Amino acid sequence: MLLHIVARGRIGRSPEAELVERYLKRVTWPTKITELPDKGSARLPPLPAPAVTVMLDETGTQMPSMAFAEKLGRWRDDGMRECRFLIGAADGFSDDERTAASLRIAFGAMTWPHMMARAMLAEQLWRATSILANHPYHREG
Hints:
The protein has 141 residues and is of the alpha/beta class. It has one domain (2-132): Alpha/beta knot (3-Layer(aba) Sandwich). Helices cover 35% and strands 23% of the residues. It has four helices and five strands; from the N terminus they run E-H-E-E-H-E-H-E-H. Strands 2-1-4-3-5 form a five-stranded parallel sheet, with helices on one face. Helix 1 (15-26) packs parallel to helix 4 (114-132) and helix 2 packs across helix 4 (114-132).
């Protein structure tokens, strides 16, 4: 299953970009990052069927890393071709976009800069795929 991060804005050369690269290099599943302009109506390519869309959104569910890994594993085992992760611009997402997402997740109740959210997502993807591979990276309790 392809893990596809679609984010508004360019990360450029930054400490956050280095973190994203560091973690995604470790993920053994196929990964892809697509950057869209901050503003405008740049359209996403259509999702291949079957696929799921996960939106990073302040109104989303806060989930433990184990539950996130289990969800990714279930989607993979159900034959999903792509899991697309959406990171919006400063104004977030519209109600229609929120409704269309398969899952909305939040990294806590605080607001995070979009570049940090991208790095945090990359780390959680590494953690989730490590959990599914029985790698000792994740420690519970």
